[in-house]
Structure formats: C-alpha cells, structure tokens
Recover the amino acids of this structure.
C-alpha cells in the first residue's frame, strides 16, 4: 500500500510575512498542495511556492467556495495520494479556525497531522494599536468568543449574563454582522452602555482601520463607516488606551 502524505494545519499569524512563524514558512515551501482562504492576506498568499497546487477554499460571508466537509475530504484525498498537504489559515488554526474538526477527520482516516500554531489576531490586532487585552488597571481576564455561532445549535453556548457581569476584556472574532445584537445582548444583561468598544478592520494590513465607540453607539458608528469583515471587536476598559498610534509595523 502506498504511503499516505502528511497534512499540516498551519496558522499564518495575524497578517504579513514578518509575523508568520519560521515553521509555517518551512511547511509552506515544501507543500505539494495548499488549501487556503483570504485571511492570511495578500502578502502571504503572493509568497506561496509556484510548484504547489493551490486551491481556494475560502468562506466569504454567506458565500462558501467549499463547504467544510468538502474541505476535509480534499485533505483526506490528497493525503491518501501520498502528497504533502497544507491547510493554510489566518491566525491560529485552533482558535475558531475549525482545526479541531479537521484534526478529528484526519485521525479517523489514519492520516499523519502536524499542527503549526500561529499568533492569533485576537491578541495581535488590538496590540497593533496599543490596546492590550489585559492590563492591571482594567482587566485581569480576557474572553475570546465567536460572533457567528453554529446556526444548527438549538441555543447559544455563550453565557451572556456571566459575560456582561464579568470585569475582563471581551474579544470577538467574526462578529461584524451581529455587532448590533451583541451590543444589545450585553447591555440587556447588565453591562454599562458606556463601555468602550473598538472595531479593528483588516488588522495588520496596509488598509487597517479602527472604529471607536461604546456599546450604546458602536453599531450606528460601524454602519455609518460601512465597517466590513474581517474585523476584531474589543470590548472593555482597555479600549480607553487607544490613541490611534500603530505600535506594530504593518
């Protein structure tokens, strides 16, 4: 029986070649097949090796070029042909990147897997404009959640009551579409409507943009400015440290 190939679940980091890990670069350069989406950004995608077969499996809003089960089947199929396969993701593959589901599928088919962690945008993107997710004066804990839960769930797995009463920082990924609902949920469950909020679009890209407001005003401000994904939403006192200065080169 022919030897199966290895699948690498690779996090490209928050954006740009300079913030991608050395191991991620090594794996990409030796890959025979790369399944990618747009989250790694133009600079990284432009650097993908010419010899590799490249397949766009991105999910763009409600339009999916490939459904998740099809993406997993592609990885299995190429690996069973003995090829070296990279599933390239933005940020870290195990933070809302569906890497855990892909790992389960690959293990079920007895395919060798290596996970290559990446710096998550949930921390790096706020940091790029001087917003730390923890700070001795403002937050001793941080909660990272998705703003786009699995629609097949019968009820939300997010404890909004606890979240609204916690004193830490809240970071939300994939939440632009539901920004207004999220702000309303938090206020309705007891969070101060004056709590600062930052929405950071296209983090660590040349066209990064920030929209600052409060739970009361952020949905209207985002609508006025036509905020679009991808974006990282930060809620909490740490947002008051925002000055507009970039402290991580883009």
């Amino acid at each position: 029986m022919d030897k199966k190939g290895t699948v690498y679940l690779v996090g490209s980091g928050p954006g740009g070649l300079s913030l991608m890990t050395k191991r991620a670069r090594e794996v990409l350069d030796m890959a025979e097949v790369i399944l990618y989406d747009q989250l790694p950004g133009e600079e990284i995608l432009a650097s993908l090796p010419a010899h590799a077969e490249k397949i766009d499996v991105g999910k763009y809003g409600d339009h999916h070029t490939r459904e998740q089960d099809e993406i997993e089947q592609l990885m299995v199929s190429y690996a069973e042909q003995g090829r070296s396969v990279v599933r390239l993701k933005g940020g870290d593959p195990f933070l809302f990147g569906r890497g855990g589901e892909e790992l389960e599928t690959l293990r079920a088919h007895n395919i060798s897997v290596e996970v290559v962690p990446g710096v998550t945008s949930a921390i790096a993107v706020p940091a790029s404009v001087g917003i730390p997710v923890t700070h001795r004066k403002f937050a001793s804990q941080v909660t990272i959640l998705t703003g786009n839960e699995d629609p097949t769930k019968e009820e939300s797995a997010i404890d909004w009551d606890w979240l609204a009463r916690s004193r830490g920082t809240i970071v939300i990924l994939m939440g632009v579409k539901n920004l207004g609902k999220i702000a309303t949920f938090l206020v309705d469950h007891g969070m101060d409507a004056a709590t600062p909020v930052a929405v950071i679009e296209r983090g660590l890209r040349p066209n990064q943009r920030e929209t600052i407001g409060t739970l009361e005003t952020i949905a209207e401000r985002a609508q006025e400015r036509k905020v679009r994904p991808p974006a990282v939403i930060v809620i909490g006192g740490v947002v008051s440290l925002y000055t507009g200065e970039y402290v991580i080169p883009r």
Q: What stands out?
A: The chain has eight helices and twelve strands. The two ends are 48 Å apart (CA to CA). Residues 6-116 form a domain with the Cobalt-precorrin-4 Transmethylase; domain 1 fold (CATH 3.40.1010.10). The mean pLDDT is 94.
